[in-house]
Specification:
It is built from 3 helices and 3 strands. It has 108 residues and is α+β, with helices and mostly antiparallel strands. The protein has 2 domains: 53 residues, no CATH class; 40 residues. It has a 3-stranded antiparallel β-sheet with strand order 2-1-3. The longest helix has 19 residues. This is Theronine dehydrogenase. It comes from bioreactor metagenome.
Length: 108
């Protein structure tokens, strides 16, 4: 596993005076921030020393079937909690309104 240290702008209420990220360096996990990052850091200047934990594992994506089943189950729970008397009608209306979403398709 590797860690990535960087010096990034962290004042959201002020515009960044230069690049959003000044410097970054990847090191082995557990090591301290490298001198190349710490030498540029000035307390109170708006840039902060940040650490990102890099992982080699692949991101596991849900299949469309699994997303669809989860979305339908969550819809049923939500509607049954809020309006149990009209649940069947409201669920059917929502399934007709957004059929692609409840088939597991993403908007992207």
């Amino acid at each position: 596993m590797k860690w990535r240290y960087s010096l990034r702008w962290k004042l959201p209420h002020r515009p960044c005076p230069g690049p959003h990220e000044l410097v970054s360096e990847v090191v082995d996990a557990g090591q301290q921030a490298p001198e190349s990052v710490m030498s540029l850091w000035v307390a109170g200047a708006g840039y902060a020393v940040c650490v990102d934990f890099l992982d080699d594992r692949q991101i596991r994506r849900w299949s469309d079937e699994r997303k669809a089943a989860t979305r339908r189950r969550n819809l049923e729970r939500r509607v049954n909690r809020i309006a149990p008397l009209f649940a069947d009608e409201l669920i059917e209306r929502e399934l007709e309104t957004r059929p692609e979403y409840f088939r597991g398709k993403s908007a992207r």
